[in-house]
């Protein structure tokens, strides 16, 4: 590829994608709303742009072959707070991709698009949308947008329904963990698979307790290698008893399934900020 665009480059997951993506194209344009992301990798260039501003996003995507769209507010907020970056931002990405002839959008969707499904149901990639929050609703919107732009305008898309890409700190993560190495592999396969049309794949590692079925996405060639089971003995020894009446423990969305709409889902998740530094 000549030009690849990464949104959300200043975020934790974006920090692990920048280096491998910079090696996949002649030029990587990393973008976010911060003024600066520090040192850049060879072939990487940073441009600050607001997802909610179409003109800024269109300028960044001009001449791009593909865009890896990880930018957004990454937690539950009020609908009004999410409207610009998460809803309008998604529209701006796909519309700019269409107008500039971008071949494919690789999108950081989320398990929260189907977060109210029970974990015991072992859902596949064709499970109907069942969002757990306004945040999850935004993911549903973007997935449907991606499907429509493929059907009507032939913009390919791979929607990565990421479960939990962070250090394993709780019992839920024994099944939902996506390691950073597997994240890189997942995004790489979403980019280098010759034809994807509109596709959905769960972003999860090869965990013994994985609660979702990726078999219908096997054509992407994603074969995760890491397994959270090495943490099981320690995590389960410290875990509180299971409350079968709590949607946060019984549903795929975890804490997002039990919080009030508009209230943070991350607040109780003890996410360790191990952002990669160049």
UniProtKB/TrEMBL annotation:
Pfam families: Epimerase. The keyword NAD applies. Residues 5-162 form the NAD-dependent epimerase/dehydratase domain. Keywords: NAD, Oxidoreductase. GO terms for molecular function: oxidoreductase activity. The keyword NAD applies. Belongs to the NAD(P)-dependent epimerase/dehydratase family. PANTHER family: 4-EPIMERASE, PUTATIVE (AFU_ORTHOLOGUE AFUA_7G00360)-RELATED, NUCLEOSIDE-DIPHOSPHATE-SUGAR EPIMERASE. This is NAD(P)-dependent oxidoreductase. It comes from Sulfitobacter sabulilitoris.
């Amino acid at each position: 590829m000549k030009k690849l665009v990464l949104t959300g480059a200043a975020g934790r997951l974006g920090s692990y994608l920048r280096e491998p993506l910079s090696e996949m194209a002649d030029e990587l344009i990393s973008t976010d709303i911060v003024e600066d992301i520090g040192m850049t990798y060879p072939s990487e260039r940073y441009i600050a742009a607001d997802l909610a501003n179409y003109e800024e996003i269109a300028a960044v995507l001009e001449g791009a072959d593909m865009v890896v769209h990880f930018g957004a507010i990454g937690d539950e907020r009020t609908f009004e707070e999410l409207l610009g970056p998460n809803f309008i931002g998604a529209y701006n990405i796909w519309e700019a991709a269409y107008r500039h002839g971008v071949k494919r959008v690789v999108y950081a969707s989320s398990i929260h698009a189907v977060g109210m499904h029970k974990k015991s149901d072992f859902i596949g990639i064709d499970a109907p949308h069942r969002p757990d929050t306004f945040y999850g609703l935004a993911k549903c919107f973007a997935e449907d947008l991606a499907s429509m732009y493929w059907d009507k305008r032939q913009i390919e898309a791979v929607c990565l329904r990421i479960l939990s890409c962070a250090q394993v700190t709780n019992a839920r993560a024994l099944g939902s963990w996506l390691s950073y190495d597997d994240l890189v592999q997942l995004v790489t396969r979403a980019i280098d698979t010759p034809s994807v049309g509109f596709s959905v794949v769960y972003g999860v590692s090869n965990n013994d307790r994985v609660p979702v079925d990726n078999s219908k996405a096997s054509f992407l060639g994603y074969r995760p290698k890491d397994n959270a089971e090495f943490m099981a003995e320690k995590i389960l020894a410290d875990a509180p008893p299971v409350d079968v009446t709590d949607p946060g423990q019984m549903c795929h969305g975890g804490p997002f399934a039990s919080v009030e709409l508009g209230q943070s889902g991350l607040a109780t998740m003890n996410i360790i900020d191990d952002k990669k530094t160049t």
